[in-house]
Every structure is written in structure tokens, then in C-alpha cells.
Design goal:
Residues 63-174 form the Integrase catalytic domain. By secondary structure, this protein is α/β, with parallel strands linked by helices. The protein is built from 5 helices and 5 strands; from the N terminus they run H-H-H-E-E-E-H-E-H-E.
Length: 174
């Protein structure tokens, strides 16, 4: 028995549906923005239809694209910066590998050991991220505490000396 096309019985062609889903996932566009863009091009699609397409096809796209995401290197650079989100100051944690590929990022209202630990756990759980050999961080006192807790729990298996405190490296824009 052959597998049925996921686009069977759809009013629009598959390439149109995938274009909408890709633009929504890739760019900071709302469903109404996409509706307006396509209306200018002569294609009338309601924003709720686009929402349904994203809900239906985004997980499938992610599942099919995930094997092609390249693995990262084992040398990490971790930093955080202070950003304003909806008139509230928050900490944006970020991690990149030695080649500059983004490992993960996370927004948190606090800058403490628990926040750093949660960020490390989230980054380690990402499927395309390799286990770290070296982690370069700034002199934030929360990182060694989080690192020791993760080692005690068995999430990180590297020597404590491999958590390097670097003062001049900034990986996130201020």
C-alpha cells in the first residue's frame, strides 16, 4: 500500500502551502502579514487557514529536516546579555560553538545558578548539539555552580578545569 500525500484534498497546491509555512517559520511574519503579502500577489488565503497549515505541516518539516542539520563542534562559548522585552529587562543566554554556529539561546528574568543550569540542560538536550569538551564562559559566578551541579547529576562528563572563564569574549550583541 502506498503512503497517501499529506497535501491530498487541499484547495491549494503543495508548493504554495509549503511557501506559507516556510515564510512563517523563517521570518518574523504574522499570519495576517502573510495573508496581506499573498493578497498583493493575487492569492486570497485567510490567516486562519495559514495557521492550520503551520500546525499541520511544521512538525513534519522539522522531522524531515532534522537529519540534515550538521552537528556542532565540542568547544562551546556561552554568554548572556541584558535585553528589554516588552518594557521589562531580561537576560538572554546564548551559546555558540567554535565555528560560530548557534547551539541554543534562552530568555530568563534572573541571572543565577538555576538559570544557568536550566540553560545548560536545554542546550544539552538539543539533538544537533554534541557534548562539550570545553566551555568558555565569562566570570559570572553562576556558571561554576551550575556546572558542578550538572556534573554531580551526570549530565556533563568533562573535567572541571575545562570550564574556562574568559573576560574579553562576547558572543551576543549588547
Amino acid at each position: 500500500m502506498t503512503e497517501q500525500s499529506p497535501f491530498k484534498w487541499r484547495h491549494f497546491q503543495a508548493d504554495i502551502i509549503l511557501l506559507f509555512v516556510r515564510w512563517y517559520l523563517r521570518y518574523a511574519l504574522s499570519y495576517r502579514d502573510l495573508e496581506e503579502i499573498m493578497l498583493e500577489r493575487g492569492l486570497q488565503v485567510d490567516h486562519t487557514t495559514i495557521y492550520r497549515w503551520v500546525q499541520r505541516y511544521a512538525p513534519e518539516l522539522e522531522r524531515r529536516c532534522r537529519p540534515y542539520v550538521r552537528a556542532t563542534t565540542d568547544s562551546w562559548r556561552v554568554d548572556e546579555t541584558y535585553v528589554k522585552v516588552r518594557k521589562v529587562w531580561m537576560y538572554l543566554y546564548g551559546a555558540v560553538d567554535s565555528e560560530g554556529k548557534t547551539l541554543d539561546f534562552w530568555l530568563r528574568s534572573t541571572r543565577d545558578g538555576d538559570a544557568a543550569k536550566c540553560f545548560f540542560l536545554k542546550t544539552l538536550a538539543t539533538s544537533h548539539v554534541s557534548s562539550p569538551r570545553v566551555i568558555n564562559v565569562d566570570k559570572n559566578a553562576a556558571y561554576p555552580k551550575a556546572f558542578q551541579e550538572l556534573q554531580a547529576e551526570g549530565h556533563i562528563h568533562i573535567a572541571p578545569k575545562q570550564l574556562r572563564a574568559v573576560t574579553s569574549t562576547r558572543i551576543l550583541p549588547k
